[in-house]
Each structure stands twice: as C-alpha cells, then as structure tokens.
Amino acid sequence: MSIFESILVVIRDSSWQFIGVVIALVALFFAYKQWNRKSLVYSVISKSNILSIPSPFNQQLEIKYNQKLIKSLYVVSIILKNNGNIAIVPDDFKQYIEIRGGDNKHILSYAVIETKPEDIKVKLDLNTDSKGGYVVIEPLLLNKKDSLTIQLLFEDFDKISIQGRIVGVEKIKQFDYSFNNNLYPLILVGGLLAISFGLIVGINYPLSYAASNIYIISITMGIMILTNYLTKFKD
User: Fold this and answer.
1) In the structure, how many helices (H) and strands (E) does the chain have?
2) pLDDT (tens digit per residue) in 8-17
3) Euclidean distance between CA atoms 60 and 54, whole angstroms
4) What is the pTM of this model?
C-alpha cells in the first residue's frame, strides 16, 4: 500500500471528513476576509545624516536652519500606502494622520516627492507642540494600491511613528517591503502546489469520497494562499 493510499484510509474515517469540511469553511472565511480588507501601512525607505557637528567643535561652530540653531540634520523618506482592497475616502478620517519622530525629535520641513497615481490631491501641514515638530496629513482619497512618498527633514532622528483614526483601519502599521519581497516566490509556489495537489487527487481518484475531501481542502487552501499573496504582499 502506497503512502497516499494509507492517507486515504485514514481520511475515510467520518471524524476526519468532518474536520476536512470545517477546515475548508475556515479557509474560505479567511480568504474572504483577506479579499475585503481596509489597510494603511508605512515604511521607512531611506534615512541619512546630512549634517553632524563633531563634539570637540560644538562650542565653536554654529549652524542655523530658518534661524534655528541645530547640531545635526537627517533626511528620512517614507512611503504611505493603501495596501488593502477597499478605498479610503476623506469621510473615513476621524482624526488626521500625524507623522512624528521620537521624543523631542523635531521635524523641520517636508516634501511630497512622489504619488502613485500622480493626480492624488494631498495636503500636508507642519505643526509644533510640546513634543516637537510634526507633520499632519489632511483627509484624502486613497484608492487600492495608492501611495505617497514623503521626505522629512529632522533636526535629530531615532525613530518614526504614524498615527491616525480611520474607519475600518485598526492601526497604521509599519510594513517591511524588502522582507515581503523575499516571500513572494515562496507564497506563490506554496499556493500553486496546494492547488496542483488537489487537482491531481481529484483527477486520479474521482469517485473516492475521502479523496474529494483532500481535493476540497487543497484547492481551498491554495486559493486562500494566493488570495493573501495578491491582496497583502503584492505591490
């Protein structure tokens, strides 16, 4: 008896058949949730120190930016993207998006260097409070896969945080695009293998009830994996 035939013998048990149906239904539910998902993420794509005064010269050298005395300057580029499958409309904003650095890390200036598509209407403001200078993004329309690339000038820099209240978005999360780019092949191959395995079982054992369970589970899991690939990881 082959390994596959042994698996079929086990799966013929009614309890395993019930488990198979449950797994298929759960997989379809999560695939649906992934397909109907509102999400806004950001990523720091570059940062560089363009000015730093060595400590021995702190008392001897003065550099000013807009009449403000500074000792270091950082340029940080970030991308803000709707990586969900539902448009984010201006009425969804219950609180403006705020871009901040760490404690007492002032943002001195900003520039929108790219939008995708090019006709996105975006308005930013530079504000200051007791925590330092920060940038506010006013409500705007971000369709599926729309993105903004913003360059920020920091007096000093250690970290960045982006917060806001948007209907349907639990949190504006940081997203590592380089990490997920490395996962693309594995996710795609995994989904295709699951679907291929299901098709092979269905073709070779068309009259087997147990094999039909394997077919349903494999196809459903493959569809769920590919849906996740297309909706969450794919740019």
Assistant:
1) 4, 11
2) 554 454 555 5
3) 10
4) 0.64
